């Protein structure tokens, strides 16, 4: 279990009990997702040693907390990015970046120039934090955390204080972080779009309990996942660009499906992450020859759930039980087609979008 | 002129030493008051604030007893050979520290609270130990509070009268400070000397209040994010 992050906490937290027992991978981005007040930030702060909730925290075989040990925050090899950048206002950007670097005892595998390059900090180095935009500040905060040579990066809604434009500006840097560094990231968010774009592993939290924990699409499309009732529900699948036709349509191979997407800026061979929104999927008994829809796939209905009084969500399997996605249709349509669990139908996907280049 | 200079120099010496002691004693108190979650911390805050409302003669009376043969003077007298700390310069420093404590603790506490826990948490996640956090983050960010506290503590000590009268005894070169010197000059109808010292105090007080309001206006450089 030394390649895992073990977080087992049991204690009171405001109005409810925080009671989780998580084992997260020591690689990639793990998202802690849930409504505000569900305990996700408390978990992150406990991992950092900023909160003290009884329990055990082990990271890669090292014990940071148990019933006898409590490593103080400054002895834990973490990087922490807060919701607000929280740069030190009395220091320049360079001094901020070097604050942790000067104090860390870990060997310096993350180099200043590389971080400046990765996060696009070149022009900001000699400025004062007061003269930076929100997105720039948060990039500096991330760089500052990275330069303390963490073996685990903790991020508490690092994007939520930013406006749409700043978010779009900073998201590519997160993806670069993901591919460029081998540091595992624990990422707290209440925004499903961030989960879809960034997370590899997903933990669903509700009132201090972990409802589900697992690889992203396994959790999103789990039969008992509480997420399907969301109007913006989508499945997120990993894939690879197979080819791009002259008319701009890219073929993406994902699990056992071949999906056609508008491939403006894609390269053949590139790994991508595709999103299939449940509301964009319709169901037909037979393949329509005269439809504008490019993606029509044979699928098996493995589960039917009612959403409210008038809608139905279908869990669809395109092959051998992987790459599941959902369709959200009206109750009337479901009745008219007399859909049943276990039936084979055609899923028509109006649009498939690329959420991230991986 | 010695009659004028002696109380001035003595006052400056008293105020400087008192201010230094106040910063050393007041900072940990302010720190504890700012961060502690103990419910009885407001009791401590009230005790610290007492000199704000207590008549200086009352404070002086208790200090006189505390410093006397049955108090600190009795316990530590064997060190110095004296029977009492009252009517000594050291006793005056002790009394002034108590008397001016709220003027130093309050601005520093406010500055810590305005700064908030976040910068300290950030520093902790960047491997800074508690002392390191204090000197590299809290001190620079709360600096205006420290300056205000130091100026107020100094000025308040310069201006103290009632406490000095009670525990000082008005001994030239030892405990005869500005305020008691002015009182003496007036008592003995030496208006010229009283005028000079009073005018100096007036100018000094004006400068202090101006300085404090300038320090207060220059608010701690806040992180706009």
TrEMBL record, chain A:
Coiled-coil segments on the chain, per record: none
SMART domains to which the protein is assigned, alphabetical: AAA
Presence of keyword S-adenosyl-L-methionine: no
Domain annotation Mop: ranges: 290-358
Key words, A-Z: ATP-binding, Cell inner membrane, Cell membrane, Membrane, Molybdenum, Nucleotide-binding, Translocase, Transport
GO molecular-function terms, A-Z: ATP binding
Recorded superkingdom: Bacteria
Key word Transmembrane present: no
Domain ABC transporter: 2-232
Similarity comment text for this entry: Belongs to the ABC transporter superfamily.
Record-given protein name: Molybdenum ABC transporter ATP-binding protein
Organism, as annotated: Chelativorans composti
Taxonomic lineage: Bacteria, Pseudomonadati, Pseudomonadota, Alphaproteobacteria, Hyphomicrobiales
Gene: modC
Automatic annotation (TrEMBL), chain B:
Pfam families: BPD_transp_1 (PF00528)
Lipid bilayer topology: Multi-pass membrane protein
The UniProt record lists the keyword Transmembrane helix: yes
Positions of transmembrane segments: 14-34, 43-65, 85-105, 134-155, 194-215
Compartment list: Cell inner membrane; Cell membrane
Alphabetical keyword list: Cell inner membrane, Cell membrane, Membrane, Molybdenum, Transmembrane, Transmembrane helix, Transport
Entry keyword annotation includes Transmembrane: yes
Domain ABC transmembrane type-1, chain residue ranges per copy: 8-212
Function per UniProt: Part of the binding-protein-dependent transport system for molybdenum; probably responsible for the translocation of the substrate across the membrane.
Annotated family: Belongs to the binding-protein-dependent transport system permease family. CysTW subfamily.
Annotated protein name in UniProt: Molybdenum transport system permease
Gene: modB
